[in-house]
Amino acid sequence: ENLRFRVNMYKYKEERDIAPETFMNMVCSMQYAKRFGPWFAEPIVAGLDKDDKPYISGSDVVGAPVETSDFIVGGTCTDNLYGTCESLYKKDMDKDELFEVLAQSLLAAVDRDALSGWGGVVHIITKEGVSTKTLKA
After folding, report:
1. Where would a tag sit more exposed on the chain, N or C end, judged by fewer CB atoms within 10 A?
2. How far, CA to CA in Å, does 24 sit from each of 54, 89, 93, 105, 137?
């Protein structure tokens, strides 16, 4: 609710939609403000910047951001995800290839980590829109 309020205030004040970079900075500053009683979340922000280039960023529980150009992982199965993503990811994949890599990486990681749940949701963001698919382990 607090995050939605801040995004709406940004839109009202700036008279434009919030960019993914700005949104990540907003999330990180909120997390840092709660660093002594942190929210136990590792947010990942993905989107397209003003030039329609992919933007991916994440942060730890106290709001230290990490930006990358290939992939980012977070959560309880981070170690399992890194290994699978590093072996399957290639630059400039089309959206079907990217979905397959994401699905295989996510399912392989949740199979090895009981705290991760029984599946996941994959969002592929393109200029045309967002396609969402649900995976079940």
Report:
1. N
2. 14, 24, 25, 24, 30
Q: If you ran DSSP here, which 8-state letter would residue 53 be given?
A: -
pLDDT tens, N- to C-terminus, the chain (137 residues): 889 999 999 999 999 999 999 999 999 999 999 888 878 889 999 999 989 999 999 999 899 999 998 999 988 888 888 888 999 999 989 999 999 999 998 888 888 877 777 788 999 999 999 999 998 86
Q: Cα–Cα distance between 74 and 60 in angstroms, integer?
A: 9
Measured at the CA of 89, the angle between CA 133 and CA 45, to 5 degrees, comes to 55
Which secondary structure element, helix H or strand E, spans residue 130, and what is its range? strand 129-136
